[in-house]
Specification:
Layout (H helix, E strand, L loop, with lengths): L2 H16 L6 H11 L7 H11 L7 H12 L52 H7 L7 H19 L7 E3 L4 E2 L1 H10 L9 E3 L6 E7 L5 H17 L4 E5 L3 E3 L9 H11 L9 H11 L1 H4 L4 E6 L8 H14 L2 E6 L12 H6 L5 E4 L3 H7 L6
Parallel strand pairs: 4-5, 4-7, 7-8, 8-9
Antiparallel strand pairs: 1-3, 2-3, 5-6
Length: 374
């Protein structure tokens, strides 16, 4: 694949983000796939492909057109200008023939695209952070990630439910309720009943393994949970290793480092050993009836390395699954493609888990959001 094509695309996407246009890394991947299926020598075909694959909204169309003309077609191109043809031979499905400069001149310094620094051409620091494993991050990375996590959490708080609920004013017609109204008014249809998909804040219970084997991931997972709690106030959080501790009240606003220090003092055997079965059994006995119902999503953060009785773990998971809407188990070891959930703790829990997913970077946390819906 031509590095120049990737660099031009990344430069355009970076410029769009700086102009306030929402373009994600996933949109960039879709755009690159689209470019492999069009004639990159046809500027209008490229423009349409990029506008669709980058999901440009109507309100951002003017910014996109201006930046496409300046960065993709060259500084000399503008509205009404005839686009220059690239200097190399090319065709659909032939990205290796993409020209050195897609602006057509190739040598003009004005047409050069500024490529943000990073390990890959054009990838911003935020894009790199999204894929940086938690166990390779430092305190500076965590501070920047917290801002990204806050944005992810806000997306969850504004996500509409899949279910339809009665609504006033706008919404789709509800024929069944409308007919009931007709019966109540002697056969006259005075108004249509309507339904819409409401914004529903999810009910979450998070049970986080803070044992030594999870230490490299714990601070990032708790930062994400803190962000979730700000937008989903009914979130309850527990930490466990050899004992279960309810830590919801400790996740108050403040610096992550100070929060972790307070938690390390409050939670017995922080970063020590782990007894997953005993801890989840304690949750099921003490808190299950109070905190979990048919609308609650239970999330367990753990690598599943159990030192206790796996039968006890299986019984606790069975009780939790019978009451919860959904049970999600997030395991950082899944980042390794060679990993198999055969450790006795993970194997005992697996039959009662709706979704087993990796959790080792921001992208994996972002993919979790649709599964937290109420």
């Amino acid at each position: 694949m031509s590095g120049d094509l990737v660099a031009h695309l990344a430069g355009l996407a970076g410029a769009l983000r700086r102009a306030g246009v929402r373009v994600s890394v996933g949109d960039e991947v879709d755009a690159l796939r689209a470019l492999l299926r069009v004639d990159v020598g046809d500027p209008q075909e490229v423009r349409r492909a990029l506008r669709c694959s980058l999901k440009i909204r109507p309100g951002d169309a003017r910014a996109f057109e201006a930046l496409f003309a300046r960065l993709w077609m060259g500084a000399g191109a503008g509205e009404g200008a005839a686009p220059a043809r690239p200097v190399a031979e090319h065709g659909p499905g032939n990205p290796r023939a993409a020209p050195r400069s897609l602006a057509g001149g190739g040598e003009s310094a004005e047409a050069e695209v500024e490529v943000p620094e990073g390990d890959e051409p054009g990838y911003s620091r935020e894009a790199l952070l999204r894929r940086k494993p938690f166990d390779r991050c430092d305190d500076r990375d965590l501070a920047e990630m917290e801002r990204i996590m806050a944005r992810l959490a806000r997306r969850l708080a504004t996500r509409r439910s899949r279910r339809l609920a009665p609504a006033r004013g706008r919404g789709i017609p509800d024929l069944r309720r409308s007919l009931r109204r007709v019966l109540a008014t002697g056969g006259e249809l005075l108004s249509l009943a309507r339904r819409e998909r409401p914004v529903e804040t999810p009910r979450l219970v998070v049970i986080c393994d803070t044992s030594g084997s999870m230490d490299a991931h714990t601070r990032f997972l708790l930062a994400f949970v803190r962000a979730l709690k700000r937008v989903a106030s009914r979130t309850e959080v527990f930490a466990f290793n050899t004992e279960l501790t309810r830590i919801t009240a400790w996740l108050s606003p403040g610096r992550q480092r100070s929060v972790l220090s307070r938690l390390a003092e409050a939670v017995p055997d922080w970063s020590g050993g782990t007894r997953i079965g005993e801890s989840l059994d304690a949750f099921a006995r003490r808190h299950l009836d109070e905190l979990v119902d048919g609308r609650t999503v239970v999330i367990v953060f753990s690598d599943g390395l159990e030192r206790g009785d796996p039968e006890l773990l299986a019984r606790a998971m069975r009780r939790i699954r019978a009451r919860a809407r959904r049970v999600i188990w997030l395991n950082p070891l899944l980042a390794d493609p060679r990993y198999q959930p055969t450790a006795r703790g993970m194997a005992a829990a697996l039959p009662f888990v709706d979704r087993l997913a990796p959790v080792h970077d921001l992208e994996t946390l972002e993919r979790l959001l649709p599964h937290l819906e109420a």
